[in-house]
Amino acid sequence: MQRLMKNLGVYLILVVLVVSVVNMFLTPQTAGPEVAEVPYSQFKTDLAAGRIKNFTINEMKAQGRYADGKTFVSNIVGVKDVAEEAAARGVEVRIAEPPETPWWMTLASSVFPTLLLIGVWIFFLHNMQGGGGKVMSFAKSKAKMFLDNRPKVTFNDVAGCDEAKEELKEVVEFLKSPDRFTKLGAKVPKGVLLLGSPGTGKTLLARACAGEADVPFFSTSGSDFVEMFVGVGASRVRDLFDQARKYQPCLVFIDEIDAVGRQRGTGLGGGHDEREQTLNQLLVEMDGFDEKTGIILIAATNRADVLDPALLRPGRFDRHVVVDTPDVKGREAILKVHAKDKKFAPDVDFEVLAKRTPGFVGADLANVINEAALLAARGGKTEIGMAELEEGIDRSIAGPERKSRLIGPREKKIIAYHETGHAMVAKLIPGCDPVHKISIIPRGSAALGYTLQLPAEDRFLASKNELTNNICVLLGGRVTEELVFGDITTGASNDLERATQVARSMVTQYGMSSLGPVVLGRQRHEVFLGRDLGEDRNYSDQIAFAIDEEVRKIVEECYVRVKKLLSDNRDKVDLVAETLLEREVMDGHDLAVLLGEEEPVSEKSEEKAASESAGAPAPEEPAPAEEKAADGFIPRAPVVSNEMAPMERKEPPSAKGE
Ligand code: ADP
Ligand code: MG
Ligand code: ZN
């Protein structure tokens, strides 16, 4: 059928082409080659002189015979004038009948445009579907159906989100033996919503569910429902559930559901749009599940805040499973999962690596292992060592090392001092997060150097003191430039931006200034665009002025403090900077040795592992996220890159079942 339709399109176009070509050739051709063409002027004079015997007017041509028997043809202007003049002179003149077009030609020329349109339309329809579906299969759902070839992923491949796993295991249990639950009258969730930041393993979890449960699995994504034709999304939803009903019990997975599930009535173009119809259809379908329906819907999103409340209410996605950013133990487990089929050197300690990677999600960790494996392979090694893994982590934070970037000796010196400034402030102010690494090897597209501080343990709260310390550390780079070179560079722009941001948050969000414990301003966001648009100012101009003054005061006080601190310790700054210039990279231990705080140890990795496990006890509670303090020394234009995560946490980890 579909083949036929496709061919029909081609045939139609062909027929139309042939007809038009034939049409061209069939246009009546009058004068034969032996007939002499005479100019009109000649024709007129000949006619007036009576030299013409007879002729026939065929449209705008006169063809005939001279009295001497020769034939002629001439183009003429007015048929009537010529005919009347000839008749008046007694010349025999005939008017030819207008040429008759064959009936089929007339028909063809009137049907021609229509046929062409239909042909093109069929062709177009066909190509749009990539030759796959039927001609009218727009309305069919694009969900991939796995009946026997279900994903091979199991729950063992997912680590670091044990609570989420437990909840989903229950779902799987239900799918395996629904009777056990229904006999007891237990209501089984209709919809499970997986919430979590990108890369935490939501998609992976859903696939694991399908792999574990012995049922058909439909996998689709929110964006599959979005098409340029109105109504298509809704009918795709209908089709998806029609199919699912045929195969129940089964699992339906909708990834990135926010593409269709956004709050209704917030479209920029006004109310009733395509997305709304799709969402409505989804709601209707979910209401259609009764207690006995064996369809379980799993959806994933990282933007639960933009979802329509109707989707979240009981009876729809009533079970919310938060897939957290993994904590230290979780990270270790994830690293081990990804390390399963790779060879590692005996000194590789995943516990240490987990401590080095606060804030990393599953996808980042998978990437770290992969980068390390690539590096080891490139280096011709047979196993992955600690050095490659460390480099993998650095790459994840700040992009690959760019040794080729040419930096002049003077700039390099400035960068070394700048980074030393950050590190020394962190060293000299008690209570700052310990310095883990300083580097002046340029990385990624933006950072020329960086100082990495890692908190000794996962943390949720920041005290006023810690925030001020953060500002001081951020200012350290700029202050050192000023102290040492008597001039300042653009390299500190990102530091300053972040310092100001921390100070502003202290004043407006955390109530940590003389303006008192109040929150000033409100974050405003546009749900349809899905991003924050800025701040609603709910305070007066005077307060705005006072805020600016407070922010300035906080930053300036820190500046003065840092300046005094660094000038008092100028000798240490010089020592560290010179050493950094030489070695390019120093870790926390190197720095401590240099400053005479620690004994140098020859077996570096052993010492590191020992100090790490002794110094920082792993927290009992699983903690979702940590601060990641990577400092970037930015060339000329200020670029905000991802590595520079803000120091403050804006919102508490979302509780489940909110
Ligand atoms: P999300 O859907 O939450 O954005 P994905 O499930 O697509 O994240 O994760 C991407 C990849 O990261 C996975 O294929 C897997 O290799 C890795 N990954 C993420 N989270 C985990 C985890 N908890 N355990 C193991 N691997 C993970
Ligand atoms: Mg995903
Ligand atoms: Zn800096």
From TrEMBL:
Region (Disordered): 598-658
Active-site residues, as the UniProt record annotates them: E419
GO molecular function: hydrolase activity
UniProt key word Zinc: yes
List of residues binding Zn(2+): H418, H422, D495
Domain of life: Bacteria
Signal sequence coordinates: none
Location(s), subcellular: Cell membrane; Membrane
Bound cofactor: record note: Binds 1 zinc ion per subunit.
Membrane topology qualifier: Multi-pass membrane protein
UniProt keyword annotation of Electron transport present: no
Transmembrane segments: 7-26, 103-124
Chain's role: Acts as a processive, ATP-dependent zinc metallopeptidase for both cytoplasmic and membrane proteins. Plays a role in the quality control of integral membrane proteins.
Protein name in the entry: ATP-dependent zinc metalloprotease FtsH
Originating species: Pyramidobacter piscolens W5455
